[in-house]
Amino acid sequence: MYIIHLQTIQSLLDDILHPRLSPQAITYCRTGTAPGEPLDYPGFNRLIAMASRHARRHPLNLSDDEKLHISRNMPGWDLSQWNLLELLRVRLIIAQQHLAEESFADVLIKAFQFADEGEACAFYKAIPLLPAPERFLWHMKEACRSNMRSIVWAAGCDNPFPVTYFDDIAWRQLVMKALFIEIPLVHIYHLEHRLSTTLAEMANDYIAERTSAGRSIPTDIKLLLGDAAC
Asked: What residues does 59 pair with on adjacent strands?
């Protein structure tokens, strides 16, 4: 289990977010993150959908100082692949009232049903920051079975959720899916902590299949074949 200091993370995300937003977008963010009554599904859905009017899918281009603050305050997270709209949406999500309550979980689960790709990616990136994130384990596992690279990356990469909560089967599925859809394995946090003989055998089978088909072999597959794979 990893520990989330939500207020610290909220402050850190604000420090990254606000300099990249227009004055109108900052107002939207501050209004959406201000304490108030818990949002029902229509209100939550509107808040997340309307965020696209205030931010675009622009890369964050994090500074070295920002990366350092992230590594110190959010161990296991790498926000380098996030975009500005995702960051705004995640900030709005983790500011909601009663995050630990079933009522919020119900709202978020319903939101998944009607989310577009960008909204879903923001939901998956927010889940590891929520109280008791394992409540959403099924959703995170299913995301890592997707054929959509953005969805797998959002749920399975650059955060400590999978290494913490995935069972061995789900973990191996994530790693092999990353190979299939060409996500660099370095983005799977603590991959080296869960190497195994089974995973190495799956990697060798993958190498054999691609060699037989005359296809290239991902260079990072060697990460699955080291001495730790035992």
From this structure: 83
Q: By the 8 A CB rule, do 87 and 117 touch? A: no
Compute the CA torsion angle 72, 76, 79, 82 (nearest 10 deg).
-160
Decide if 89 contacts 48 (C-beta within 8 A): yes
String of b and e for 116-146 (b: at least 16 CB within 10 Å)? Answer: eebbbbbbbbbbbbbeebebbbebbbebbeb
Structure tokens at 167: 């069972």
d(CA 119, CA 162): 20
Q: Give 69's contacts (C-beta < 8 A, 6+ positions apart).
A: 12, 15
**Inter-residue contact 104 to 96 (CB < 8 Å):** yes
DSSP state of 18: G
pLDDT tens-digit series, residues 52-77: 999 999 999 999 999 999 999 999 99
User: Residue 83's closest CA among 57, 52, 64?
Assistant: 57
Low-confidence ranges of the chain (pLDDT < 70): 227-230
Query: Each residue of 85-121: pLDDT tens digit?
Result: 999 999 999 999 999 999 999 999 999 999 999 999 9
Q: How far apart are the first and last CA of the chain?
A: 24
> Cα-atom radius of gyration of the chain, to the nearest Å?
19
The whole model's pTM is what?
Answer: 0.95
Can you tell me the distance from the alpha carbon of 188 to that of 107, in angstroms, rounded to the nearest whole number?
A: 28
Q: Which helix (H) or strand (E) holds 204?
A: helix 197-212
